[in-house]
Recover the amino acids of this structure.
């Protein structure tokens, strides 16, 4: 579906099927919205009420070049770059306020001190899988002063997911 609006690229927001449109580096669906973190650094918020015809609502410059990881919970989205992108060895987190999905705004940046390979967000808590540095747990209740609240030492902490208040890390 072409959004019809000028943005960081032209053409359909779904880049599948060999088109020249940048494909998402990550996607997260919450309710009727899909959050695509594109490899060109933009977060595309789309209405997927009709999943066969998604409608791009806004394209927000998230500054995450090369795609990455996205997790959403309520009013916040947590974004991190893929390994190999700029600053990945320090583990940058970006928190975006998406209470109004049509007007996302960057509210915080945080560095966990290790490469992030997966991220999960629930109840204002970020779980970041950080490879050989294990699992980092960060409270974002007040994004302006994010604070580490725990860590779990694990070799090669990678894929991360969860449900409700439970997080699962594959190490």
């Amino acid at each position: 579906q072409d959004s019809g609006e000028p943005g960081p690229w032209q053409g359909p927001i779904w880049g599948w099927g060999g088109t020249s449109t940048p494909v998402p580096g990550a996607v997260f669906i919450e309710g009727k919205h899909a959050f695509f973190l594109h490899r060109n650094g933009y977060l595309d918020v789309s209405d997927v009420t009709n999943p066969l015809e998604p409608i791009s609502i806004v394209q927000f410059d998230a500054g995450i070049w090369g795609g990455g990881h996205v997790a959403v919970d309520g009013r916040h989205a947590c974004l991190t770059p893929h390994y190999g992108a700029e600053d990945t060895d320090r583990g940058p987190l970006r928190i975006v306020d998406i209470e109004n999905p049509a007007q996302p705004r960057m509210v915080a940046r945080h560095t966990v001190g290790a490469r992030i390979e997966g991220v999960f967000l629930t109840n204002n808590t970020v779980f970041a899988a950080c490879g050989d540095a294990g699992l980092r747990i960060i409270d974002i209740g007040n994004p302006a002063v994010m604070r580490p609240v725990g860590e779990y030492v694990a070799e090669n902490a990678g894929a991360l997911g969860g449900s409700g208040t439970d997080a699962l890390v594959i190490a």
User: Anything to note?
Assistant: Residues 119 and 128 are 5 Å apart (CA to CA).
